[in-house]
Amino acid sequence: MSIVAYKAGEMAADSCSFSGGRRYPSEPKIVKSDLGLFGTVGRNSDGYLARGWFRSGMPTERPEFSDEKDDELHIMWVKPDGTVWWADRRLSFTPMPWPTSIGNSTAIDFVEAAMLAGMTAGDAVALGIQHCVWIGGAVQVERIG
After folding, report:
1. Is this prediction's pTM over 0.85?
2. Domains in the chain, ordered, with CATH?
């Protein structure tokens, strides 16, 4: 389980992954390029492939993701113009409302409430880490632009 949140030009994520009831450090869940910010949650191997695809400029040849429903891949892409888009493993992007987050449903509720109450995405994820057992580690924060 993971969390990626976005508000007002700032994308934030936790830095852990979970498997077999254990918590492990993960590679950064957010990447930044000229195409904007790109954050992933779900199966680590799928996130790794998706972030590599984004770093490569989103070529027409798409990665092959897992067919597993557990830990299904979810992607948040913030374009340089500030619009926020969501996709799953099919890489068919649709607009998302604001404020927004993807990941563990309990963490999403907590983090989005904190952002609506005025916290930045980074501060909301940090608070979520203190109160939700399914997200953890240090907070990664990236800014658009």
Report:
1. yes
2. 3-143 (3.60.20.10)
